[in-house]
Amino acid sequence: MKRAILLSAFLAFTVLGARDTGSSTGVMSTKDSKKQKFNITVGNVWNYISNFGSLGGDFNNNDYGYDWPGGNGHPYYLWGSYFTIGFKVGDNVYVTSHNYPDGEWNYTSDYNSVAGPRESAWDVYTSINDYKSNPKNTPGRHSGIKVVIHTLAWPHYPYNNFIAHEFYITYDPNECDIGSSPPAELDSLYLGMWYDCDVCGADPSDPHIDDLVSFDGWTNGEWNNPNFRHREPVDSFTVLPDTFLAQPDGIPDQYLVWGDEDNEHIVDSAAAWTIVRSDTDTIRGYLIPRGISYIYDGDNPADPGDDTGEGGACAGYIGGSWLYTPPAPSDTTWVVNGDTCRIVRPWSHQWWNWESDPATDEDIYNYLKGHHRATYMNGHYYRYAPHPEDLHASVFDYRFLSTVGPFTLRPGDTLKFVWVVGVGQGMNGGYDSYWGRGWLLGLRQVMENALKAYYAGSEHSDPAHPSAPDEDRHWNIPVPPAAPGLRYSYTKRGVELIWDDYAERTPDPIKGVVDVVAYRVYRAVFAPSNWQLIAEFHQDSTGGFVHSYVDTTVSVGFPYYYVVVAVDDDSLESPKNNYKKDEDGNPLALVIGTQPASSVDNVKVVPNPYKGSAPWTASEIADKVEFINLPPQAVIRIYTLSGDLVKTIVHNSSTDGSEAWNLLTRSGQKVVTGVYIYKVETPDGKYKIGKFLILK
């Protein structure tokens, strides 16, 4: 292993070279000023990374947790994620873990920065430790471990549905207070990714209680049980890079084929295998088990009918996989002509439900090593816990724990890992009619693209010759330009946008030159998603660019979001994340207000039709419509088509011509889908009658 001094030099360079991206960094404030959260909103999945052990989630605080599609009002897939390390000293076990709401890791002041574009479009550097000064862990149990985390994300297809994390783990015995003298090494060490996924927040009633959990990968023969409904190996599909066929192809569905595409580099073809697919297609490459622990929405027995996937609102599968770990006992290794090959595999896949969260170090450690009494069945311990249905369990609120190890961590050494989490449309891909995104990749294809991205540009490594992130070129995929700094406000002329020339001064990190050729202006209504292009500006004859635009097509009462993106000569756009944000990094809408009107003639309802809750402002994600262009005094009555009175609202304001309705009836019940009639009447008897549509 490379020594820690090399890692320190590497990280010092990356952090010192990182540029300050100003207000667009998405740094969220917390009650403790030393704790930081960094929003990651460049792709289709929105999340955050912290400097205190959380890898995202916590909807209680309105934080992003693998919101998918990002920007659509928190259809979150992740409630919380907990970075966990356990090891042994003699016969005693020690575990340091984040857990809700705070955990045992301490925040550090170094490496907390955002830079981009660098290796990705949005690189975040954070670090955590369990040193003697850590007040969040018990004295006598401080491990002396420090973890530096590099998080990467991309905005463009096919890399925009996952977020990657590189971990660099070191041990300082001078910061360890275990025993009378610090141990010379930390033995039997396991690293675990503990994810409490709730699929999903678009289901306001039971986003968590109707989930199922499973594993897609090599299971050491533990699932070769004819009574299991979910077995491995199984060959039911032909899983292709961008779609799938509902027919077998001779390849187990839990494996991807590496080497069947031009961009899948193989270091030593002599060490590769001859793979026959469908008895006709012969490939030289490798079969790589994906090793994905994942959670998805099941059929809630409390709801009538089949509500699996919530009618398309929660069709996503969220899962995580290891792209790189140091050599471990669970790996596959072989030697060809002196060439040692190794395929990374997780040590265990464990799960439990919310009623049995492990509460002690011993409990957590037993899960980490896949030797827990809860997964002791049929006469042995399952390292790869079978599907709940195969253990006579049903839909519930589950967590998964994906672990790697065991390792030995010595002073001066650095253990390096790469972990990636993504969301896909089912496992193999499908059509999204609910959010209107068309055909989407499945979780299997998302993870294969993550593996391709990691080894893109590698010169002496591939998935059968794995290398750590600082041991070869990695993530060498096209990087879009930096997003320009943007500010905008409403004026008498319309919404005026002004942006800077930052993208024109920032070279592409791969090409080494500035490659910006145009700017595009996008606008969204009600949520920072479903962007519509409203203007585009190319270089003029002198090589210059326009840096301002006025949108004169806005309507009063609507919450708007704007972004300006730079476009490079590969037609890649910078991330759509330079819209207005509040101090916590949450989207901030620009609402075009109305002044009181002199009559009821121009009263109208927005939005019409209403299609679901949306973030009207940074702090308000609301089910509501607004009546705009109201006179200073008026009574609003809302009726069903059959003439039943639903709600009466009294408007009285000399400064505001708007009035909101929260879509509750006069008895406090939520209204249903349908057409509604409104009558707005002034004290002098003048009135206007109209109608609007509610879709739920």
3D architecture notes:
With 696 residues, the chain is mainly β. It has three domains: 1-477, no CATH class; 486-591, Sandwich (Immunoglobulin-like), CATH 2.60.40; 604-694, Macroglobulin (MG2) domain (Immunoglobulin-like). It is 5% helix and 37% strand. The protein contains three helices and 45 strands. Strands 7, 8, 9, 10, 11, 13, 19, 20 and 27 form a nine-stranded antiparallel beta sheet that branches. Strands 4, 5, 6, 12, 23 and 26 form a six-stranded antiparallel beta sheet that branches. Strand 8 and strand 9 (123-129) form a beta hairpin. It is globular, with a radius of gyration of 27 Å. The termini are far apart. Residues 1-25 and 27-31 have low confidence and may be disordered.
Layout: helices, strands, pairs:
Blueprint: H1 4-17, E1 27-28, E2 37-40, E3 47-50, E4 54-57, E5 78-89, E6 92-97, E7 106-107, E8 113-115, E9 123-129, E10 145-153, E11 162-171, E12 186-197, E13 211-216, E14 238-239, E15 244-245, E16 255-258, E17 273-277, E18 281-289, E19 292-297, E20 316-324, E21 332-336, E22 339-343, E23 348-353, H2 361-368, E24 376-377, E25 380-381, E26 398-409, E27 414-425, E28 430-432, E29 438-440, H3 443-455, E30 486-491, E31 494-499, E32 516-525, E33 532-538, E34 548-551, E35 559-568, E36 590-591, E37 604-606, E38 614-615, E39 621-622, E40 625-628, E41 633-640, E42 645-652, E43 659-661, E44 674-681, E45 687-694
Antiparallel strand pairs: 1-2, 2-3, 4-5, 5-6, 5-12, 7-9, 8-9, 9-10, 10-11, 11-27, 12-26, 13-19, 14-15, 16-18, 17-18, 19-20, 20-27, 21-22, 23-26, 24-25, 28-29, 30-31, 31-34, 32-33, 32-35, 35-36, 37-40, 38-39, 40-43, 41-42, 41-44, 44-45
